[in-house]
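Throughout this review, each integer encodes one residue's backbone shape. One record appears below.

===
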Amino acid sequence: MILLELVLQNFGPYRGRQVLDLSPGTEGCPIILIGGMNGGGKTTLLDALRLALYGARSQCSTRRGLSYSDFLSQCVHYAAPDDAIAGVELAFEYILNGVPKTIRVQRTWSRQPKGGKDTLDVTVDDWADDVLVQTWDEWIETVLPLGISSLFLFDGEQIKELAEQAIPPTPVVEAIRAMLGLELADRLALDLDLLTQRKQKALANTQELHDLERIEHRLAEQKTARESAATQLEHLKTQVEQATAVLQTAEANFKARGGDIASDRPQLEAKLAALQQSANDIRDQLRACAAAELPLLLIQPLLKKVQAQGQKELRRQQIEMSQDLIAERDQKLLDVLATADLSPKLHIRLHQPIPHMADPPVQQRR
């Protein structure tokens, strides 16, 4: 089985018709490497290969617990029109009856798949093969069984993870068992149980058949409820992931807008309480000082005023004493002049008032 071509039509992140040449080309170059950034659509190519080969049984990375109908609707490109056709097409070379043939398998569907399924078309050397369409699931199991497909169709980034695991994961174990034919015993055991049940039904009476049918009906209901619960669980997990992403974004915005200050509120409040306590202690110390020595500081301005007033009073007293001395001197001079024989002109001048002197000269005081 040699892959030749993969065609995507409005599938996943690939809009419109996209053709990928997978042919090996020249001899000695059988490997095709596909690289790209995360989210570039590399895993989507593997999903397209699985979907083209196995349809509803495909184990695609984005399917999870979705039903096949919901998975097909999810795979349609988000920007494609509502009536757009989506699909995957795989061409590969396979030897039939000793002759190499080009087999092309194509699956198409719309955003609302009819009957919840896709439309399968198979051509052999460009000739439609309806028989192969009807028996495709059985035929592909003879070419590449689904159990061992995970050994050939896997993401290269998983190689390191698989190599480091002490115990291989369940898909790898099942693939190895299928490749070695070990799952045949399990199938035979299941077939034997089925034959036993059929035989027991044939030998059972009417009441037992009724009870058995009722139990089988309840079992089917429980299986349906379990599948519904699993689907709901996956939906809730998706909601939790979305809510977690929203929470992380909100926390980032909260921190960017100063939320760290709000988160540090207890520490800031404790620091504020310590500062308030320190302020209260200082206030108590000031009160103690005010009750003891501090009032004495208020006396200093009063003492300065008293000293200034005392100096003024002393100055005034000195001036008054000087005036009394001057008046006494003048009276003595007048008495001397009255007994002396002076001219009238000089007598008149001596009787003129003497100007007031605030501080008499030292000579006159003598």
Remarks:
- The longest helix spans residues 206-256.
- The radius of gyration is 57 Å.
- DSSP finds 14 helices and six strands in the chain.
